Amino acid sequence: MIYSLNGILIHKEQNFVVIECGGVGYKCLTTMNTLRELPQTGEKAMLYTHMLVREDAVELCGFADQSELNCFKMLTSVSGVGAKAATAILSELRPEQVAVAVSSADGKALTKAAGVGNKLAQRIILELKDKVKNIMPSRTLEPSTTGTLPVFQEGNISKAIGALAVLGYAPDEVTPFMSGIDPMLPVERIIGETLKAIGKK
Fold first, then answer.
1. How does strand 58-63 pair with strand 4-12?
2. Please, which residues have CB within 8 angstroms of residue 81's CB and are 6 or more apart in sequence?
3. Which CATH superfamily is domain 4-63 in?
4. What is the rounded distance in angstroms from the CA atom of residue 90 to the CA atom of residue 20?
5. What three-state secondary structure class fits 64?
6. Alpha-carbon distance 87 to 152, whole Å?
7. What number is the average pLDDT over the span 35-53?
8. Which CATH superfamily is domain 69-131 in?
9. Is 19 helix (H, G, I), strand (E, B) or coil?
10. Residue 194 contacts by C-beta under 8 Å, 6 or more apart in sequence?
11. Domain ranges for the chain
12. How far apart are CA 95 and CA 74, in angstroms?
């Protein structure tokens, strides 16, 4: 399994890039959001990768950060969602937007992606919400007695924790990174700030 690629970006098109590592050029299918994050060709670039193995092909998918990779994996775990649909969704929406769409049952947001109809959007919401139920604790989290963590019983912080579960993050993984975040911020902003903090770890 190839975990990541770190080398020279030698080619990029609308849906894939090629990164040269040790004299070998690796083609990676990717999203428009990742393409926007990458430098110009000829410069050094790094992608987190996921390998797809099918009967007729072996392909690499590349992502600018782990939150997008995690979201891709969650999306492709849904029956009927392949790499093409997952990539299309992540080309239209950032991971935090996908998380909010699923947690709020906003199928319309998912149908903005090319090739994703209402039926598929509703299936994504249904299956990922079931996964979230298995990740989330059975009771609401209590506030820290030290006051270093925000209050989670209600409000946007709680919604953000539920939405982050869509991306595969358990509550106890994300709560330490929320201590400095204003709980009055919009849910999507809280998710984005949390993911940035996790990425800096």
1. unpaired
2. 75, 120, 123, 124
3. Nucleic acid-binding proteins (2.40.50.140)
4. 24
5. coil
6. 32
7. 94
8. 5' to 3' exonuclease, C-terminal subdomain (1.10.150.20)
9. strand
10. 160, 164, 174, 177, 178, 181
11. 4-63, 69-131
12. 11
Q: Is the pLDDT of residue 79 over 80?
A: yes
**Where does the pLDDT of residue 100 fall: very low under 50, low under 70, confident under 90, or very high at 90 and above?**
confident
- pTM given for the model: 0.77
Pair of tokens at residue 23:
């004299």
> How confident is the model at residue 12, as a pLDDT?
94
Nearest residue to 83 via CA among 5, 126, 4, 28: 28
**Amino acid identity for residue 131 in this structure:** K
Amino acid identity of residue 162, one-letter, is G
C-alpha to C-alpha distance for 29 and 197, rounded to whole angstroms: 27
Distance of alpha carbon 18 from alpha carbon 60, whole angstroms:
10
Q: What's the helix, strand, coil split of the chain in %, to 5?
A: 45, 20, 35
